[in-house]
Amino acid sequence: MSSPRCAQRRSSVRRLNGSRIEDGVVAGAVAAVVSGLPSMAWELARGGDPLRATLAVGSMALPRERRRERLVAAAVPVHLGVSVAWGVVLARVLPRRPSVAAGAVAGLATAALDLGLVARRFPAIRSLPLGPQLADHAAYGAVVAFVLARRR
Q1: Distance CA 98, CA 139 (A)
Q2: What is the DSSP letter of 119?
Q3: Cα gap 128→50, rounded to integer Å
Q4: Given 46, 64, 106, 115, which is the most exposed site by the fewest CB atoms within 10 A?
Q5: Residue 120 per-residue DSSP state
Q6: 3-state DSSP call for residue 131?
Q7: d(CA 110, CA 25)
Q8: Cα(134)–Cα(49) distance, rounded to whole angstroms?
Q9: What percent of the chain has a predicted confidence (pLDDT) above 70?
Q10: Is 14 exposed, middle or buried (0-12, 13-18, 19+ CB in 10 A)?
């Protein structure tokens, strides 16, 4: 039989894990909104399409689609889902009050997996310039860390 003290410890562990998940979901969602700004700014500066990366993400879900509005619509849940998932992971692995720099490094680590392994299977993602994509990931991680530090 479990003592009341053991039950209290298990309950506090569940609350800790639950709050980490909640913190990660919130941080990932906030970061999803702003993390594309570096690549968007890059495209604007060079006279390109500011939605290029968004359209590429949409093509992951709809690989044969060419209509911009459908690709943008498809990109939203894909990007949000990936961002929230990484937010939960980073909430678990980053220190309790992570620095923005630690978050940026963690964002670059996610880039190694996102861009180096998974997204390389998708031609539209593969065609994106690497520098702005790395900047997007670093910005993502920095924002996640910022939000996590404020929530904890």
Answers
A1: 14
A2: G
A3: 12
A4: 64
A5: G
A6: helix
A7: 16
A8: 18
A9: 88
A10: exposed
